[in-house]
């Protein structure tokens, strides 16, 4: 044991960390079952994949694979700046938005600092906080009496903020619950937050939300210098494999984030694809329409199975399977259907199902019917 004394060099946060559990890859299940038509509805990917224009741009960019990418992401930042009507100095590019969430933790958290987030909140807030050796303060979600059951309880989150708080994470909508916050309540929360605290509003599923009261938090950047809004190309834009996301913030915040960012964190094909994706609004519209229809299909199927689910505005739905979900997950795997257990989110009786194509949704519902 004494030769492993170096283990104590790892700080307490790292020692408490359990690695992120990704959705099971299709290829892995197909190898295990010896089949070729498995369905993966486990990672909230776009069943249509990327825009053909984004793919073409990525392919063309591969010709320059021998060169380092543009570390400043000039073209992509210009396209994002135009989209949000902000100065490019407000933008921090990330290797997925997960990367910018980590940058925020590295810059604004650390020993003795606390991060506030909600129960059932996206697990990366927990992971980034521990990796920065800071203290996670997880606030119980709504119990249903004062707000949507399992949604963020902003009042309780506000009450958990104190002198030691460095960052508050709000997911709108949240993954894996699909719950969301209205413009007035989120704006009120941000307005009341002390200015020594960074407020992260994670809008990974922004494009999918069609509720009239749903806010675009980037509109408030001018009012709240402590606000960081994160977006991704992994979900509605269908570019999960290429890893591109970004943060919008006050330029002083972006300056700090960019100091610790790896100089070449977003590769060249990814930057090119993301620029092209921003230019293809039709593809996003098609994806959103397909999601709307697929969500209806899943909800009808789940209702027919007598199941309850958490009402979701994202491209996924988290279902109460009425028994330990790990067993149902395993049984669905044997049916060639990969969904996502959410036990680590404090939901051991639930499974999260990504909205897929009509045929994929049917396959998942039929398998669920057989398994239950
Ligand atoms: C998927 C997801 C992200 C980040 O995904 P990236 O691929 O790293 O951009 C961020 N927040 C939430 C809530 C998500 O579900």
Overall description:
Residues 37-368 form the Aminotransferase class I/classII large domain. This is Histidinol-phosphate aminotransferase. The modification N6-(pyridoxal phosphate)lysine is found at residue 235. The chain has 372 residues and is of the alpha/beta class. The protein folds into 2 domains: 5-49 and 282-371, Aspartate Aminotransferase, domain 1; 53-280, Type I PLP-dependent aspartate aminotransferase-like (Major domain) (Aspartate Aminotransferase, domain 2, 3-Layer(aba) Sandwich). 38% of the residues lie in helices and 16% in strands. It has helices at residues 12-16, 26-33, 52-61, 74-84, 97-108, 123-131, 154-160, 183-192, 251-260, 268-278, 281-304, 325-334, 358-371, and strands at residues 39-40, 91-94, 114-118, 135-139, 165-171, 198-202, 227-232, 245-249, 308-310, 316-320, 337-338, 340-342, 347-354. The protein has a 7-stranded mixed sheet, sandwiched between helices. Strands 9-10-13-12 form a 4-stranded antiparallel sheet, with helices on one face. Strands 1-11 form a two-stranded parallel sheet. α11 runs parallel beside α13 (358-371). The longest helix has 24 residues, at 281-304. 47% of the residues are buried. The mean pLDDT is 96. It binds pyridoxal-5'-phosphate (PLP). Pyridoxal-5'-phosphate (PLP) binds at residues 44, 96-98, 122, 171, 175, 202, 204, 232, 234, 240, 245.
Describe this protein with a few key phrases.
13 helices, 16% strand, four-stranded antiparallel beta sheet, binds pyridoxal-5'-phosphate, globular, alpha/beta, 13 strands, Aspartate Aminotransferase, domain 2, 372 residues
């Amino acid at each position: 044991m004494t030769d492993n004394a170096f283990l104590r060099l790892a700080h307490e946060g790292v020692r408490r960390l359990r690695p992120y559990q990704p959705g099971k890859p299709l290829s892995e299940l197909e190898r295990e079952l010896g089949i070729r038509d498995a369905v993966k509805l486990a990672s909230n990917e776009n069943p249509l994949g990327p825009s053909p224009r984004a793919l073409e741009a990525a392919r063309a960019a591969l010709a320059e694979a021998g060169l380092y990418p543009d570390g400043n992401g000039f073209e992509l930042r210009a396209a994002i700046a135009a989209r949000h009507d902000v100065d490019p100095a407000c933008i921090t590019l990330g290797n997925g938005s997960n990367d910018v969430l980590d940058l925020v933790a590295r810059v604004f958290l650390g020993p003795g600092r606390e991060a506030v987030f909600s129960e059932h909140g996206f697990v990366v807030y927990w992971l980034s906080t521990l990796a920065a050796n800071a203290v996670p303060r997880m606030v119980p979600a709504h119990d249903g009496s004062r707000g949507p059951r399992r949604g963020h309880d902003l009042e309780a989150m506000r009450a958990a903020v104190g002198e030691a708080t460095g960052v508050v994470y709000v997911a709108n909508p949240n993954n894996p619950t699909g719950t969301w916050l209205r413009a007035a309540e989120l704006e009120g929360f941000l307005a009341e937050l002390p200015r020594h605290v960074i407020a992260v509003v994670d809008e990974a599923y922004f494009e999918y939300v069609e509720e009239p009261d749903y806010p675009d938090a980037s509109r408030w950047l001018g009012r709240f210098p402590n606000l960081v809004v994160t977006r991704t190309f992994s979900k509605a834009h269908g570019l999960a494999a290429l890893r591109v996301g970004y943060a919008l913030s006050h330029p002083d915040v972006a300056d700090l984030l960019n100091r610790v960012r790896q100089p070449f964190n977003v590769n060249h094909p990814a930057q090119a694809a993301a620029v092209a994706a921003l230019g293809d609004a039709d593809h996003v519209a098609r994806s959103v329409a397909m999601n709307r229809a697929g969500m209806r299909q899943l909800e009808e199927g789940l209702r027919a199975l007598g199941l309850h689910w958490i009402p979701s505005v994202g491209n996924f739905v988290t279902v109460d399977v009425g028994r330990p979900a790990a067993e149902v997950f395993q049984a669905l795997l044997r049916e060639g259907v990969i969904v996502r257990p959410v036990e680590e989110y404090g939901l051991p009786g639930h499974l999260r199902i990504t909205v897929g194509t009509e045929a994929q949704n049917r396959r998942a519902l039929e398998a669920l019917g057989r398994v239950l």
